[in-house]
Structures are given as C-alpha cells and as structure tokens.
Write the structure tokens for this entry.
Amino acid sequence: MAHHPCRRTWKPVLAALLLVGFATAQAGASGRTHGLSAFGDLKLPADFKHFDYVNPHAPKGGRVALIGPVARNTFDSFNDFIVKGEPAQGLELLFDALMERNLDEPDAVYGLVAHSAELAPDRGSVTFHMRPEAKFSDGSPLTAADVVFSLDVLKEKGNPVYGLALNDVAKAEAVDAHTVRFTFKVTTNRDLPLLVAGLPIFSKAYYATREFDQTTLEPPLGSGPYKIADFKAGAGFVSYRRRDDYWAKDLPINRGHFNFDEVRYVYFRDRTAGLLGLTGGELDLREELTSRDWMTQYDIPAVKEKRLLRIELRDRTPSGAQGWFLNTRRPKFADPRVRKAFDYAFDFEFANRNLMYGLYDRTASWFENSELKAKGKPSAAEIALLEPFRKDLSPEVFEEPYQPPVSDGSGKDRKLLQAADKLLKDAGWQIDKAGKRTNAKGEVLEVEFLIEADPSSERLLAGFVENLRRLGVSASIRRTEATEYQRRRKTFDFDVIGGRYALRPTPSAEVRGLWTSDAARKDGSSNLAGISHPAVDALVERVIAAKSREEMLAAVHALDRVIRAGHYWVPNWYSGVKRVVYWDRYNRPEKTARYDRRIGIHTWWYDTAKAARLKSN
C-alpha cells in the first residue's frame, strides 16, 4: 500500500513545522548561539565542518530522476504555500530558511541565512543575525525586509497550516538590513523561535508585482541550491538544475548536500506506470511503497544482474499514523461506538498475510514506533493532565491505551463482526427488514471511501468494505482523479479518506493543525477526522508549552490516549524499513541520519565509473 502523507513534505514546512524549541546552551558572551535546540545542548560546536551523515567530498554532477515522496500524478502550480492548486514536487529545493535541521538530532537547527540567533531572556522574542552574502538567484540581496515579508504573507495568505502554527507570532521587524527580530505574543510556546527560524524566505521585491495567493506556472524566485530548468505541467515532469552560483554552497551546513546537477521529478498516471518507468530507465530511483510490487515485480534480469539494486534502509523515524480517517463532521460518525465498529470490521491480519506478504506491523498509536506512544496505564503526571476532563472522557482513557483488535486472519472473523454489530446497535443503528443498517429516522448508514486512482488502495479496501456490507452498512469506494481528490480532501467533502501523519520526535505547535477544534473548521487543514474535543485542545497546548522533555512526553502520552479512545480512524500499518530500488550509478554515505525520512536526492551522489559500467552492460 502506498503511503499518502497528509501533510506536504516541502522543505520549508518540514523546517517550519517539524522543528521545535530552543536552547540557551553554548551561548557566547553576547547571548548569541550558532543553533537552536529543544531541552538541551547542541550536538555540534560553532566551528563544525559538516554534518556527520554526509560525504563532504562527494563529487558534483549527474542526474537523478524520481517520483516525489507524496503520491501525485499531476501538478498545475509552482506555488506550494497556498491551498489552491496541485503544486509540483521538489519546490523545497528553491528556498532557503534562516536555519536548517541537523537530522542526527531530534530537534536541532544550525545557521543558514542567519549565522546566529539571540533569544531574549524572557523568551518573548528572538533576533537573527543574517549573512550579508545571502542572495536570491537573480543576484539581488536577501535582507531582513524579505524575512519580514515572508512571515507576513504566510500568515495572511498562506496555507492555514502556517496560520495555525504561527498564531502566537506577533510580528517581525527589520532592525537593520541584516538583523531581524521576531516578537511573540506568549513566552510559554517553546516552538516559536524555530518555527520562524525555519520559514521559507521569499523576495519582497519579486512579489511586489505578483499575487502570492494565486497558482502559477512561472518558476518562482528563490535563494536555494536549485532553479527550475524545464517542466511539462500535468502528467509530465519538472526538472531542477543545480546552481553553480548558489551563495551558500560552501557553508558547513550544506557541505555534502545537493550533489546532483539535475533533479527531475516525473509524473505517472499511477504507481504501476511509475514502476514501468523505473524498469524502463525513465526513472533512476524509486521508494517502493507497495508490498506486492516489492515482492513480485522485481524478478527481472536487471535485478538479477545487480544493475538495478533493491535495498532496505532502516527507518528509525516515528512512523506516525496511517489509516482511514472517519469524518466526524458528518452526523453518522458522531458516535464513537460507530467509529469503533469500523475498526472491528477491518481484518488487518488477513490483509497483511494475503495482500502485503506479511511485511507490515499494525499501527496502534498516532505516535507509532516512538517513545511518544502511550503504553501501560497512565502515569501520575498523565492523570493530573487528564483529571480535569474526566467527565468528558471515555473510561478507557484511564486504563491501558486502546489497541486495535486482532483477528483470526480469516478475513471475516465472526467474533469481531459480532462485536461490531453490537456497537452499531448500541449506537442506534439497527438492521431493517431489507438487511440495511438504519437509525430511528429510517436513514440508511451509507459510507463512501474516497481514494485516488490507485489500484492498490482499492485492493486493500475490498475486504474491509465487504465486512461493512456484512454488517448492513451500505459501503462503497469512490475513485477520483487527483484534482477532484485534492479538492474534496481540502474541503472535507468525504465520509472516509486514507492518510498518513508523518510525525516527529518532538511535537509542538504543528499539532494544532492536526487535532484541534480550530483546525477542524479550516479548509485545507490536516485534521481530516474533524476532531473537536476540549481535552484534546487543552492537551495540545500542554504539549506546546512543556518546559522539559519529561513534561512533553506526559502531555503527548495523555493526548495519544484521548485520541485513540475517540476512535477517529481505522489504523493501518507501518514498516520499520524503507525499501528503495535504484539503478547502480549512485553512491551514498555510509551513515544514515537518525531522523531523515528523505531518500536519495540530498546526500547521495552520481558515480561516473558505475554509470559507465552500467551503460556498457
């Protein structure tokens, strides 16, 4: 099954929304630091030469063609920062931020456009000191005014995910041409310094003659390592050319990165066509997300001869939450017993053994495969956070956290279906004379699963849908093209939709966009299930305001318990490895970054000797 991340994976959003906290450690006499981190010291000193997971001597050159990390079969815009349109993949290569992640640390960033940061003693503001040599790709200087503009335009016209995360940022002001200060509304949100440190930086002058909140196929002006060289919109491609004049190419933070002369994202109508693109040579690299393809589609001469390599890379990042999300904005899903019944109707054991070759484990938590996952009974610290909401919470919140049921693997486990039947009846949905599940008003329980044109999704849903029909639910699958799918997803026009939240080791302000009542009301947010609960809202704020990792973990564990007990989703599965197939003309560093989800394009490099041998074969 292909994963479908619910959040876009552009670099600015990863930087702006997946980073946390700050540290006052390692500050000089002036109070300036060369990086920021959460709850502790920075791993790297101010004079570090490069990150530990790169080859600082990697040669530059060659090309890599791939499918992007988000499964899409078309694009119509180069604006990745608004709700409108279907943006091209790879746009993160165009933009720099004030600071950038070290992916060997759970939550640390180091200077890029800014060489240092200075946090106010009361934590009410942070000042960044910028490199005067920073420039946009047209040669114009990148100044504090551009940083101020970037914050303002993202808050006013950007995707709602920015507005939610940046709600507590009062303003940005240019102290001088190369110094920018951000002032915060609160001093308890530890995320704010790095939220602003990771924002993409746009040219104020460029957007003086262009509308930021409109889709466009004009290649945008950025200051990053690549420029758009060529493209064909729709089911075509977009090609990024490495900039020889990139102002930051020799900084320690970039050493060993961005080694390809060309990065090319190719679009196919579906993953099957993409597989043919790989074996036919149109693609160079593919992360294989479909278990059936991994097990059955690579018994070909190129693989046997080791010209096309299949590797498994250990995935040590939190697996997050993949599943089918039930839209509680619709009255039929208002009762958690109905939602829980859907969980009992899905036979993971059957699907994993018969459709996915036993390659996966069942997801239980929204923070799967990480220390953030709640286990056992609540600790005293968790109880203290949960107690004020006891009357509004299910009793199971205060017991062992909810675990999805384990079936007999038959595909139609009678015991689980009987449990689902009872849950539906208790929620007021009875079986009528025609065998349909109806409520007291005579309304039939009709449920549509919205999917993109992806055969693997339909194959994995088939057994689930059949079990729902056995329960009298009028269940169906609606396949749509990418444009309609994205429109309906952004406006929450669905009953059930698949998705994946790729969470991180230190969650903070970005979780407002995942689970809060405010996010549930905003089109384009990642709160697919429409979760709106006072305990969730309060616990989200406790996660954000935590002053230590221990406090943060207690709040996250409590939050996990509440959401799991709410049965807002039917959890899917996860894997502890990333499966990658690529033509043997590349090399990669010996070490993989602990928290890196990316494949290939940032630290791998083109090997001319391997490429020559491959061509001669």
User: Anything to note?
Assistant: Residues 1-29 have pLDDT under 50 and may be disordered. The domain at 321-574 is CATH 3.10.105.10 (Dipeptide-binding Protein; domain 3).
